[in-house]
Automatic annotation (TrEMBL):
Keywords per UniProt: Membrane, Transmembrane, Transmembrane helix
PANTHER family (alphabetical): ABC TRANSPORTER PERMEASE
Pfam families the UniProt entry points to: ABC2_membrane_4 (PF12730)
InterPro entries linked to this entry: Peptidase_M4/M1_CTD_sf (IPR027268)
Membrane-traversing stretches: 21-42, 54-76, 106-129, 149-171, 178-197, 241-259, 330-349, 380-397, 423-447, 467-484, 496-518, 538-560, 581-602
Protein name as annotated: Peptidase M1-like protein
Keyword Aminoacyl-tRNA synthetase: no
Length: 1196
């Protein structure tokens, strides 16, 4: 009964306070806008119903992340209010049992948290059914979807989080300690689990996530089809079930530990170190009474000096005590000790690609692991602003929480000393953290055996560039606390301000002049350095520093001092605090922010053409509305391109003078030519014959020229143009944009043929996204047509002869597509001439940098490799893969048609490689981070083999813009790489390669979805497709499958290919007995499951070994709605027996490897082998069964 009274009192007490209701409102608003705005971008062009189970569940789990940062105020208050108000001695003397006290308080806190999280469902309902809702996005009301999300996710998260928060606050006696519990859970739910998921511990990562966001995103976002996301309800099953059971168990365990540790007695000191030091007492003898004694020296007189020197000393003293208070607290120790250790572990785990270690070069470490954008919530550096929010409240309220505020307020210390001292203390913590990150970076480099240390780069980036951002945010957090004058409310408002900074674009606030502490980000790569990005960054940070000074002035004027703490009372004394010095600082700050803001606005909006996201959407809609009628209109074909390019890296400028030869390959005359120049360059165009510009739409980038005389079939004309790159002003979007200022750099110039004029209407410029199209009155856009609807006579993209002369500074190498024909010097300039003998396709790419060049010939092909001088470790591996690919692919699929092949390192720390046209392969600087000393899997060989495969699949054979198009390009390129690995390195290397490709990062496997003939998702294109092709080659024969692919190229080299064309060729080489397998691989979404239940062996009298397997087989077919139907297994499946594996091998030498006819269910298989077996089973190489692990067993 007392438990109920305590529960009722605590619940009533907190419900009378504003915080729970304010938190409820925050959750309703966040869920409302998440449902209506933030979730919509993931819809792409497809339709999601706003009240679909997928949207409801996603909004719930993301809202729980935000709630996790609000909830500690409730749990901490319930757990530690008695200790904080010093009422605990009286309470603990009352006849209340520990279970009643803890149960009542915890139950009330949990009930309040459940109420607050109920606001998520309320917000979602208001977004769907409230005013302004789009009825076209509303499906049938499914109460079970809301109940499942609330019960399975929200309530279990409330239990887990409340138990941690309550335990932390109760054990320490401090309400703010509950925030540490939340931050621990937040850190586990996001950075740690993502790190584990990116490694081979992905199954454990799904369990380690306390909030369930990873499991939701893995299961629903990646594995469910659009149809499933709209109709399938979220249930507890699979990894999510085990995740919930695990964390509910941990929560109950935390409560059990709390019950055991808590004693309702007067507590001993609760400093953090008291938990680790023995308690002891010492008897102290009372001194004998003595008479009065005279002091040997007189007390020196006090000098009342309150000048700047004294204030400076006071400021430093406050800063020192603030620093020590944070550093010696549990949260400070976590931030300065545990957090760096976790970062070190995370970096070491993530410094690999496909299991191959990466070289820990300084630029890569700093940009990918040791720093993060202040407003990016997608990495573990989001912990720094969260800790800043927490400790800003702690510092401002430190004296008041200790009951010493009146004494401190009576001291002759100016308000600015208190504010600045506490801000400096917080800044010293952040600087210490950045200094520790320097040690973390050096430690990682030492562990990985990398010793070219660049300590000054660490100092420049961590103690310079990143610390500035953190100090700006710390100033904001301290000011909010000073103005609001309520710790929890101040933290809430600061968190809201941070969320506004993070999601400003969703709120329509895009310009960096309007988003605190934002602006173009710096970048740092080995090729480009960091200096070229510092100009815009510095101007914006100076602008925000002026704002920070103004915030500090406001904080000083409204600093709480004395008994009168209300905002109205503080506003009355502002004029008394507004001294001449304060006015001077305020006027200086206002003058700086106005002048700097005007200068920045001039550079971003006047000199540079700034366009908002809404304006870009409007332009796309207007473009389609005005010029969509010209889609498919007859236009001349470009058959030759001639360019003369002048790059000036020191001036960051470039000019292109060029011409297109255009031919009318249609059956009728062409009377007009449609041209589209790039937006970010200046372009002048003219024809070699009379032509009049009837449309010159510079805003939408579409020009129509009416020819004086129609261009007859077979006739040609020449388009001449001049394109100018000029870095004008600042690009507020920074490196992520395609502006001219980001293309031409002092070292690492890179731009594409997108800067050149384009012929005809471009459908890719149309408005993309179902919701945006509805808002602008555009018809629904079909994502991709069915491959059977493609006209087989539609011609492929016309290739063109290409020639370019490209000039750059004397110390750099310029690169363009084609065979390098000659190079020469002219004054202080260096020139290169590239050209092709046969037409090429793809976008053109152009580079200029201080490249290290390797050239050699393979038969008639000029091999060119361009890499940064410090990234030459992989040349031999690259060339080995290139030579092997050219030899194997030419023999199997047809000759390589070009006289050149270029591999170019592209500026940027990304890991990917890609094909940028015929004969051109580019790779980011991150790709060249692969450690050449790494033993085992040779990722570089396999990845290069895949990109080489695109010279046949994607370049020679072009896929139609239809469903299954990714199978033609990506699946066949990966299949080709698999066959090359098997030929060059053997079956064990292929098995290792395929095992690594089965990792769920970046594409988790999908049981449902469209069959391969219509596949559109990345997992089908990059994983399922190549595995299906490989399985077919193992059954039908590699030679037959490759012969079918060669015929496909020969037949469709001049037209677009679809999966129907591919399937037709595969059918032609597949025996009738195996056509059911071909059907299951391509026409339906078949899923096989094989299991070796038991494997035994005994030696016969003849010395052979009889092996007996108990195996089980199942097969289901899944449709796009996620419905799985069991179908019988009646087909050939491989059975294998293997000898003892050598070190480094998973399977030893095959003793037996043949296909057996297998049916559904359990069955026994008996085979004979010549020597003692070690392992064996059904489908040992996982040709059909995607899941590894239970197919092979140790033979007993």
């Amino acid at each position: 009964m007392k438990c109920w009274e305590i529960f009722r009192f605590e619940l009533t007490y907190q419900l009378r306070r504003p915080w729970p209701w304010l938190f409820l409102v925050v959750m309703v608003v966040f869920a409302f806008f998440s449902t209506r705005i933030a979730i919509l971008p993931v819809t792409l062009p497809q339709d999601f119903i706003l009240n679909s189970p997928f949207i409801i569940t996603s909004v719930t789990v993301f809202s729980c992340q935000i709630w996790l940062l609000l909830a500690p105020a409730v749990a901490g208050e319930a757990a530690a209010r008695d200790r904080q108000t010093r009422m605990h001695p009286l309470l603990f003397t009352s006849p209340v049992r520990k279970a009643e006290y803890l149960g009542g308080r915890f139950g009330a806190a949990f009930a309040l948290q459940a109420l607050i999280l109920l606001g998520v469902q309320v917000g979602s309902l208001l977004a769907v059914y409230g005013p302004g809702a789009n009825p076209e996005l509303t499906g049938p009301f499914r109460p079970e979807a809301y109940l499942a999300a609330y019960g399975f996710l929200a309530l279990t998260n409330a239990l887990v989080a409340t138990s941690f928060q309550f335990a932390f606050a109760m054990l320490t006696g401090r309400p703010m300690a509950s925030y540490l519990g939340s931050l621990v859970l937040f850190f586990l739910s996001y950075p740690v689990t993502l790190t584990l998921y990116g490694s081979r511990l992905h199954h454990r990562a799904l369990l380690a996530d306390p909030i369930g966001i990873l499991a939701i995103m893995n299961e629903m976002m990646s594995n469910w089809t659009i149809v499933e996301k709209n109709v399938r309800s979220f249930t507890l099953e699979g990894p999510m079930l085990w995740n919930r059971l695990l964390w509910v168990g941990i929560a109950l365990g935390m409560l059990a530990i709390l019950y055991r540790r808590v004693r309702l007695v007067h507590p001993v000191p609760t400093d953090w170190w008291s938990q680790f030091t023995p308690r002891f007492t010492t008897k102290v003898k009372s001194p004998a009474p003595t008479g009065f004694t005279r002091l040997s020296r007189s007390i020196p007189p006090a000098r009342q000096s309150f000048g700047f020197r004294t204030n400076l000393g006071q400021t430093l003293a406050v800063a020192r005590r603030s620093f020590q208070g944070i550093a010696m607290s549990p949260g400070g120790l976590f931030l300065l000790l545990i957090f760096p250790m976790l970062v070190t572990f995370t970096v070491l785990v993530k410094m690999q690609h496909w299991g191959v270690p990466l070289l820990p070069r300084t630029a890569y470490l700093l940009t990918r692991h040791l720093t993060g954008v202040l407003t990016s919530p997608t990495n573990y550096w989001v912990m720094v602003p969260l800790f800043t929010i927490y400790y800003a409240g702690e510092l401002v309220w430190r004296e008041r929480d200790a009951g010493l505020s009146e004494s401190v307020d009576a001291t002759p210390v100016p308000e600015w000393v208190l504010f600045l001292g506490k801000l400096l203390g917080l800044g010293l913590i952040l600087a210490t953290l950045m200094g520790i990150m320097i040690v973390v970076g050096l430690t990682v480099q030492v562990i990985r055996g990398y010793y070219p240390f660049e300590i000054m780069r660490y100092v420049q980036v961590l103690l310079g560039l990143k610390l500035v951002d953190y100090l700006l945010f710390a100033t904001l957090a301290m000011t909010v606390q000073a103005v609001v004058n309520q710790k929890y409310l101040g933290q809430l408002f600061t968190l809201i301000a941070y969320l506004v900074m993070v999601f400003s674009s969703f709120l329509g606030i895009e310009h960096p002049l309007l988003v605190y502490a934002s602006g173009p980000e710096w970048y740092f790569t080995d090729m480009r350095g960091v200096e070229s990005s510092l100009g815009p960054w510095l101007w914006f940070r100076l602008y925000w520093a002026a704002w920070a000074v103004l915030l500090a002035v406001i904080a000083r004027l409204l600093w709480v001092r004395g008994k009168e703490q209300g905002l109205a009372s503080r506003l009355k004394i502002v004029r008394l605090r507004y001294t001449r010095a304060t006015a001077g600082f305020a006027l200086l700050a206002v003058g700086l922010l106005l002048s700097l803001g005007g200068f920045i606005f001039y550079n971003t909006n006047v000199r540079h053409a700034y366009v908002t996201d809404d304006e870009q959407v409007q332009r796309r809609a207007d473009y389609e509305r005005h010029y969509g009628k010209y889609e498919g209109i007859a236009q001349p074909t470009r058959v030759a391109t001639h360019l003369h390019i002048e790059i000036y890296p020191d001036r960051r400028e470039a000019t292109i003078r060029g011409s297109y030869r255009l031919v009318n390959r249609t059956r009728g005359p062409i009377t007009s030519v449609h041209l589209e120049p790039a937006f970010y360059v200046k372009t002048r165009m003219r024809f070699d014959r009379p032509a009049r510009a009837v449309v010159a739409d510079e805003k939408l980038g579409h020009f129509i020229y009416a020819l004086g005389q129609p261009l007859q079939p077979g006739d040609s004309l020449t388009l001449r143009f001049e394109v100018t790159f000029e870095a004008r002003g600042f690009d507020p979007r920074g490196l992520g944009s395609t502006g001219a200022g980001q293309a031409i750099l002092e070292n690492g110039t890179y731009f594409t043929g997108d800067a050149l004029p384009i012929i005809g209407y471009q459908s890719q410029r149309e408005l993309w996204g179902a919701d945006d199209r509805r808002k602008h009155g555009l018809p629904r856009q079909v994502t991709l047509p069915d491959p059977g609807d493609i006209d087989p006579r539609v011609a492929a993209d016309a290739p063109a002869i290409f020639e370019a002369i490209i000039g750059t500074s004397a110390d750099q190498v310029a690169v363009a597509p084609g065979e390098l024909r000659r190079t020469w010097h002219q004054g202080e300039r260096r020139y290169f001439q590239y050209g092709t003998d046969v037409p090429i396709i793809g976008r053109y790419v152009f580079f200029s940098a201080n490249y290290k060049v390797h050239r050699e010939r393979w038969k008639h092909v000029d091999l060119q490799v361009y890499v940064h001088p410090g990234h030459t470790e992989h040349l031999n591996r690259l060339l080995r893969s290139i030579r092997a690919s050219l030899a194997y692919y030419s023999a199997q699929f047809g000759p390589y048609p070009h006289r050149f092949l270029q591999v170019i390192e592209q500026p940027g720390n990304f890991m990917g490689m890609g094909v940028d046209g015929s004969g051109v392969i580019t790779g980011g600087e991150g790709f060249f981070q692969l450690d050449p000393k790494g033993a085992g899997f040779d990722a570089l060989f396999e990845i290069m083999a895949h990109e080489m495969g695109h010279q046949w699949w994607g370049m020679q054979l072009q896929a139609a813009f239809a469903e299954g198009g990714g199978v033609i390009s990506e699946s066949l390129a990966w299949y080709s790489a698999m066959q090359l690995v098997k030929k060059v390195k053997g079956r064990e290397a292929l098995r290792q390669f395929m095992s690594i490709m089965r990792q769920p990062d970046p594409w988790p496997p999908m049981r449902t979805g469209l069959p391969l003939l219509r596949a559109m998702d990345p997992w089908a294109n990059y994983r399922k497709g190549p595995y299906a092709m490989h399985a077919l080659s193992e059954y039908v024969g590699e030679a037959r499958v490759n012969r079918a692919l060669r015929r496909l190229i020969e037949k469709k080299v001049s037209s677009l290919a679809t999966t129907i064309d591919l399937y037709r060729e595969l059918q032609a080489v597949t025996p009738d007995s195996l056509k059911p397998l071909l059907h299951d691989l391509f026409e339906v979404n078949a899923i096989w499951t094989f299991n070796t239940r038991q494997a035994t062996a005994k030696q016969t009298a003849a010395g052979h070994w009889q092996v007996t397997f108990e195996v089980e087989a199942q097969k289901v077919v899944a449709d796009s709605a996620g419905v799985e139907t069991k179908v019988p297994v009646n087909g050939w499946v491989e059975i294998g027996v293997f000898a003892r594996a050598q070190p480094g091998q998973k399977l030893g030498k095959p003793l037996y490897l043949r296909k057996h006819f297998i049916h559904s269910g359990k069955q026994t298989i008996i085979i004979m082998v010549p020597q003692k077996p070690a392992r064996g089973g059904i489908d040992p190489y996982s040709l059909l069964d995607w899941e590894e692990g239970d197919n092979i067993e140790e033979i007993q």
